[in-house]
## 1
Amino acid sequence: MNLSTTRAIALGIALGTTYVVGCSSQPATTPGGNPGDVVGSTHNPGPGDNTGSLGLFLSTGGITIDSATYTITGPGGFMKVGTFAVGDVISTVVDGLPAGTGYTVTITASAGDAATCSGSAQFDVMSGATTSVTVHLQCRVAPKKTGSVSVTGVLNICPTLDNLSATPMEVPVGTTVNLVASASDDDMGPAPISYSWTATSGTIASPTAATTTFTCTAAGTATITVNVTDSDCGDMGSTTVICDAVSGADAGTADAGTGDDASEDTGATEASAPDTGVAEAGAPDTGVAETGAPDTGVAEAGAPDTGVAETGAPDTGVDTGTPPPACGPNGSTQACLTAQAPDCLACATTNGCLDPAQLGGTCEGTPGTASLLAGALPDGTTCSAIFPSTPTEAQVCLETLGTIFSSKCAATLQETPCLCGSADAAGCLAGTTTPIGPGYDTYSCDFGSTSSTTIQSVFTDQTKGAGQANALVQCAAAFGCNTCFGL
């Protein structure tokens, strides 16, 4: 839109502005001319003089003129430029115009911010004759510097990110991590909530799903961010996952030379050879146990595997689901880890999993008495049935470790199965499917909620016995203490 307004004659009338060109010092009028036009004429100064003059006069009509200029161009490249003296009456006489044809006079004037005027006309200078010329000025009024606007407000409540979790938070390279986000939008518009996941490294399986998985592809710390939006505004949150380099044999495979083809030790022999269930590092599975070593389903040195442990209890090689005494409420963290494999405790200790100064910890270091959830759990049992007497948080921690190790729910180096079991993992983690994992009842009792999303938010809270146990298990898995998980 052109905000300037063009006014021709009408503005000239309003300003009372008249230009006159003539041979006298008084204003001249042109019969039939328009008010506001600039009128000029040439005159004959006398015999033998082959030049003429142009007289210009501007009547301001009370309007304050800031400046006024003229430009005369003519044949042979002639040009003459001048300015008017500014005052109540503005006039000037231009002398010395050579006789000729094809002259043009251009006049410009300004009156502050009110208007800018300009116009031009052609004329001839004839020796011994007088010629009149009218300059038609067009004036443009400056646009107004103020205006108005009509504003209509539309209220939109932005969605809020309520929960963001990544479990486990430390894994070896090549391992997947479960990602869960949930958001709420009070006005449920203008569009449904959408999710967008990004990561500084690694890959995300479904970047636009509320529940998805992340896979570590390189060692280091990956920052994972989720944005939620209703197409107008939104919220965001970030978390980190530590991806640890994998050294030696691939995590999750059987020891080299075991001949077990990555399967769990069942206590059965392979190809008629005595099965030890545990091979020495880099050595074939010979069915020979070291003298004095904890019973692993291996016979004493040189003897066939009888299936009898040193304690005299039959070694069936079958998981009964009953926590070993070392991992029960009356056991200890070190005894529980040692019971899993000879080097499980050493690996966890070396990597700081038991050191509070390195964000580790032990069950014995978890203070306080557990405040258990009241009422029935989803499967109908109660916390008082699981814990007949009020336990300490340390006892809950040892009970949780026993459940995790005996059920082998973390054998994939992830604890999602410990919470969800065989239930749909995505629905379980999103809170739409009831968990049925072996650790779910213990988690519910200690964390004080049956909600899977609430449990995830405090899953590794080391002030809680179950949280301390989870933190220790995730640390051992992250640092490749695979023998702790029967791998």
## 2
Amino acid sequence: MQHQKRANQALQDLSRRDLSTDEFAALLHVQAQTVRASLCRKGHYLNIRPRKLPNRLLVWPRDAVERLLEGEAA
């Protein structure tokens, strides 16, 4: 039971730290497919690279996105 609580907490922490591709795209006012296409072609979107989770989902670092939105270089 304790292990399950820790696993759930880790998932919640991950969702606070990182963004899904759809969330990332919405914050930047572009379609998710635009982000995916750039990642496929260039390996990044606006110099931000995602992490691939074991379940093959991509997560984008929230801190890098926040810096980008504040006008700092990524």
## 3
Amino acid sequence: MAMVVNAAAAKKETTNVITTSITNCTFSYNAAEDGGAILSDSTIIINNCTFTGNTASNGDGGAIAYEPEASNAPSAPAKSTAPAAPAKSSAPAAAAAAPMAVSINAFVTSCKFKDNTALYGGSIANEGNMTISNCIFTTNTAKYGGAIFSDNELNITGCTFESNNVSNGYGGAIYNGLYQKEKAALTSKFLVANLSKVSSDVGPYLTITESSFVNNNAINGDGGAIATTGDANINFSRIIGNTAINGSAIFNSGDLMDASLNWWGSNMDPSSNVFGNVTVTPWLILNITANPNIIKNGASQVTAVLLYDSNGTYHDPANGKLPDGIPVTFTGSNGTFNPTTGILVDGQAKSLFTANTKGVTSVSTTIDNQTVSIAVTADPTLTNDTNVTNDTNLINSNSNFIKTSNTTIPMQHTGLPIAGLILAILTVIGGTIIPRKK
């Protein structure tokens, strides 16, 4: 049985809106027509909750249905059969003030959703203004939006969507569009022909940042990760391993969708992962650095970097970055890494490489389906007082420095033994001080 959060009392006085907070709760195996666990039409805050196995099999939101109806707009004035009485003034009567519009929103933060089921939105169905942050959606199922269905305004930040599914439907993880139960049953052809170019002043609106979409599926459907007919943008997100008939990652039949500055699991052009009016350029690419790239009796810090796009532009993580926690591995020959695995934090992951053989060797880092490498030179004969600047050293055939931007050039070897040098000095001194015999 679902928890029902009702704003009916607030509708009579629109300046007083009910806000419900639900924190640290677990909802398991509940069922209802809409909102298997929670049905709300008022402002609601849901934090650090777990939703497992909840169902709205023929309705909306296997775990949560947020249906504020017209609560975000002014209510219609009450009907009257008599004309309004004139104001007691010589001035024209003022028009009656419309009821004040109220702001009704939903916030879902740090929650986990697993194995929830519905027709629209396996975990969440949104018909209002909803913000979802730092949540995890796993193996949820629906026909429209395996994890989430939204036909209004939805903002998603820092969420993970993995192995969610739709069957003969749209949006393995997310469906952003109008309710199809109000329209004829549709096919991909119908969707493109009749729901394309949804006006931006109608919505719905979807914004996604710093999130992950991994191995979601639209089985016999479209949009393995996301299907949208409205306005949508997704940036600084990880999108890999999703499958569908059309748009293995994204299916769009609405206005131009901005899907730039994402990581698609490799440095290759990701255009084949999208269907419809979607821009993916530029995309983020994996780089590797080694500092120093000439190792002297020590180690080199190797860094996996996902802060540059396919045009070579750097993106400060303070202004947008991939989600933290993406797995990274390090490998190399003729030496060892410590550690050999890590995670991306602020677009970077670091490890120390220690060479065990003199000479040039290759070190590599791998994220998802992409491996990149860089050469480093191990020369344990270099002295510790030599300054090394990464990527600026010029090396001669004997692996000695000949020029660097910030490098002190060491004393060159002359081949003269130190004992011979001392003997020559003493000979000069002896000839100067001791006179020859006559």
## 4
Amino acid sequence: MNLLDCLNDRGLTPLNAGPKHGGEYHSPCPICGGQDRFRCWPEQPNEKHGIPGSYNCRRCGISGDVVQWFVDVDGMEYPAAFASAGVKGNGSSLPRKYRSPAPRKQPQKSQPNGRVWDLPPELWMEKAGKLVEYAHQQLLKNPEQMAYLAGRGLKSETVIKYQLGWLPGENGKNVMYRARVGWGLPEIKWPDGRPKALWLPRGIVIPLISEDGKLMRLRIRRPKCDIKKKTDLKYYVVPGSSMATMILNPESEALVPIEAELDTMLVAQECEGIAGAISTMSDTGKPDAFALECLQRAKAIPVALDFDPPKEDGTRPGAKAAKWWIENFDRAYRWPVPEGKDPGDAFQAGVNLREWILAGLPPVFRIREKERLKSQGQQVVEIINEGTPTKPKPTPKPAPEKQPKPIPTKLGSLFAFLDGNPKMYLKFYSTEKGNAAYAPAPATEVESVTYLTSLMIEAVDEIEKNPMEVAYRYGKPRMGKN
């Protein structure tokens, strides 16, 4: 099998770009999704294993031969990659001769440091574990709270899987009190010498359980009716808890940073098999050592921190916080929900979260999803394309009086498509020159979003030369006349 076969098998349709090295071909990159930066030379002599051919992406930096292709794209271990390429391993072709399957575009100046968190005290874990069991049973018997979670997209099996719970309070109050020393916590006294009790407010209990089954944290989401003042906490972390990072489906090649834990569970539920999710708990939260290790292995990190309303200075906390992720991880990029503030809002607005995540991942993920659906006999939706999106069929409508003449540039093609599809727009998060962030919308127009995404990727350099002009003409709401 040569590299052309590998590309064609994944529906990437390589096109001949010239005679260099016996024939040069280009196609979308199977890893980063770049439309015109991936090159391969299937006949280029390669003495290393006796199999001709090499490839290189000028955007994400992957390169190698057929063996490395099976490692980079198919995720094989080296022995399996050698076998698939028909190469017998020997001393000169050990895996250490290859670079990492997920190379970076350039060496990073510095790596973020992730904290290693200690386990909570044994007595705390025992008491907290009993509280989780009690709260979980209370939730399963509470139709109102189960309906609330279902309204946010969480299935009953997900509630059970992550042992979510409900604390109803006790003795007619919306709170429970326990002795701190009974939980292994240090005693704290009031000014009059009385010991302070451990405060456990009414609310949804969100436990963090480690991969080896250790209870690390209890966080309680309080109901709106209990939040009377601006200083009242919406989320309460039970003292003694570890602040380790919640990471679900950590082995996934795509990891999605999200703020709230319930939204993290929702994305992990909807995107099982294609992506994992990380909860930062706030827009400023950072990954711990284990999460950092998983992120450094990931091939895509779509940052889905909240799309908050702008502050008085015009900035959005989620978009501002996303810069840290983009600066520290080469494969990170901003990918907020197309509707609402967070994945829970998007679900309620009718957004298919799996399709939203797939639309933001490199083509190799969509190809694998297509193969999975076909193997299960399911219908393949249009969002799962084969590298080059197909232009959607326009909705029948009266012909305009004057058809705009497309400008012969990539930006012109984007403008022409938006002019002909008034329902479509670009959702902008910032129009600061050189730092524009935007996404195609609305999510309900799945075929059009797929095609608009391809146009947007091709025109990204031209858009960012003058994002204000694009936002003025095609942002929502459209400020200029078309």
